[in-house]
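Quick one:
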Amino acid sequence: MPSRRLAALAAAAFAIGWLPSGAAVADVEGPAPSSAVDCVSATDAEADAAAVATACSSEVEVLDARTPWDTLIAQGDGTMRWVSSATAVRTEVGGEWADIDNAVVPGEDGLVVAAPVTAMTFSDGTAGAPLARLGRDGHELTFDVPVELPAPTVDGARITYADVLPGVDLLVTVNADATGFSEVLRVASPQAAADPRIAELTFPVEVSDGLEVAAESGGFVATDGAGQVIFSSPTPAMWDSSSDAPVSQPFARRGLADASLRGAAPADAAGVTNTDPVAGPTAGDAVAWMPAEVSDDGVTIVPDAELLTGADTVWPVYIDPSVTGSRNQWTAVRDVFGAKYAFAPDEGVGLCNRATSTTCSATFKSRLLWTFTGLGTIGSLNANQIVSATFTAVATHSYDCTARPVTLYRTGDFSSGTGWPGGSLWEPMSTQTFAAKSSCAGQPVRRIEFDATPQARAIADANTAQGSVGLAADESSMAYWKRFQNDAEFWVVYNRPPTTPTTLRVTAGSVTKACGSTVVWMNSATPTLRAVVADPDGGNVQANFDLYSGATAVFNPGLTTAKASGAEHTQAVTVTLSKNATYQMRVNAQDPQGLTSAVASCSFGVDTTAPDAPTVAPVRATTSYPAVYPEGAWSGGIGQAGAFTFASASTDVLSYKYSFNNTALAQTASGSKPTVAFTPTGTGTQTLRLQAVDRAGNVSGVTLYTFNVTIPTANARWSLDDGEGTVAIDSSGFGNRYPLAMTETTGWTDGPLVDFDPTSTDRALLLDSLEDGAASSGPVLATQMGFTVGATVRLDQTPAGSRATIVSQDGAAASGFELGYRADGGCEDGAAECWSFSMRATGAANAAETKVTSSALTGVGDWVYVAGVYDERGSTIGLYICSLDGATEVDRLDGPAFRAEWNAAGALRVGQSQQLGAAPWAGAVADVQVLDGPADANQLRRACHRTFDDTVVVTP
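Output:
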């Protein structure tokens, strides 16, 4: 475009974020600036616009950045505002910007659009002329129809070709923003529909060099060599005229429309309004989709024969494809209906409830999505350069006058074929609570602004040129229903003046500390100074570091080497600083034009003396820390928490580095005398290592503190390798204390080791009937104390709608615990099936159950090791699962807090439970083991891999 100067527009024009056109704008004086600057409303170059905006404290548009969809504005506070509109807002005519005019007028080679965004030429009836030619960005697409076109009539944006077939009219309508068109065959009657030429329609499509046509989501796209979509067409549809009063509603697939909706009211709680039936299907219409087939000959669709011949079809019937060259896209996705891609002019969010409003063609949920492209300017920024972002959309209707919330989400990109719920990414960004209805006092139809900053920053982080957002409301009640227009906007404000240096830090050796409100102490007399400096214009930036002792400058090295905006600059101190003295670092930034930022400062001190080695003292037993772990002694147990207090004779110690059972010293305890908790997960000797760290980061020598955790002993174990008989022997090594009596129907089968070695003699119980199982004569565990129970099992049949028990122990009326498998809806993660370990608060049959579940390794036919753990000291229950081949292991999952207040003193059962009709196990059970106390991870892992000999350890 030629260079020109434009005057200041009215403040209202800037308030909505874009200039509607470049035509008919006169030069006007702006506010008096502080220096001799011509205060204009627009300039060609961004740098000029920024300078004028800052000098004149006004908003100045950057003309070079204009597109039909985009506006860039320099703001008086030194920031830039990028505005992108979903629909085009202007077009270029003869090298000048002008308002869009979608009216069809005569042209040199046919009918043309008066002022389009996408150049379009339509047939004027001349023989051999295609229906339409579209041009965008130097590319061209020709779209034709398989009928001869007569001379048409024109009415505004609509062209009518009458009787292209007997009883069939062709109607072409240019989109409101003149980026494309829809083409509809209006079939007047069943007799017209019987024409065999309607049974299959091929629309010839040709594209210029550099474009490729391909099918997408039931429609087609024409893309350039870079993969950018230049022209697109959504899935074609056909619909009848079932609605006497058409409304802008989601359209049903064939057979879903409710005949009672015919003649529905034009406006009500749903906010629906009358629309042109040629523009698209409406509430109550019968609709069929016609996915297009793309070939070298063009695009072929097959109209729905049932709709063309059905006795309940209401004529006329409309058959469309459409083509657009719009840069952006939008859609409404519904859970009951197909998506309404490129809806116009508005659609709804929330729940449209047929019981509330009869203009809802059914009860359905709806969400709206927009994709904005052409955001390369935003994608080129760093995320921290985004000041704010706003998504705005005109709210045309709300259910009533009560303000209710609508939420804006960051979403994934979508296509015309995207259905409910609109993709997997719905990340909430902001919520606005409002009503918008022409009849509501103070709540008119208006543009609503939502904070969209996270999406703008995500675009910058990804260095992409597009981003998508979605609107959704509470979908549980129609009271939240609202409608929005398609012409939404995305505003992004980014900062361009030099910024005050950030992330001031000081480094001594390998230790770097961030500056704060107090003095930072360092253990070096020659530290390195650090700061991040940035210029939003993206140019190179230098940093100037100065070092002061009080009011005296002690180090002035000058400017650093220029680096890209946002880089960290460092400056080594080359003078030797005094011990136990404090200094102030002052740093500012300078860009290539000599503009400097404000000064940022940081105070630090120098201390190079190491602190004394720390001491350790075990904390006396408390409710929180019931175990005491003296140095060198045996005490406590797995899951029994204890604590230690650290101390040092040095007065400037601020923290301690420590670790249990490794040399990493990777944990930190802050304070001069902190208390550190320790809950053993293993048994035997434990080693605590620690160092004191002073204010400057100097560390003491390492203190070692060793103590011993008591090892739980085995109660009982049944290897179940007997292979015959009706009694399973207790093979724990303490005598046959707890033999298990098997029911008469219980049998034997191969154990899990046979899967790895066919010659193995490993055996297991086979439980394949309701009566199968085995039980001890009395209790094996004291269930109010800590214990572990585990078994290797194979599930052969899922307990549909119920659960299956591996091991349990009876109480008076209810099992004290149950280890098993559930398919009764009780899985905590929402899974259909899961492993479960549960305990009951009391012995009553209806007592509350506390459980922990996992859906890992679920299913039938595989051997799995499963263990339940009750830690009475930690008041928790846990669940452990692993596959015998070691491929999958689920570390112990801790469930809700639980403490057993009773003891289940009945028999221990294998394959049965005391509740739920015995909840029988259907499959095989091998190697059942119970322990006093909670087992640690190593014991559980060894049990899984069948190395039982080293799990039975007697506490010293």
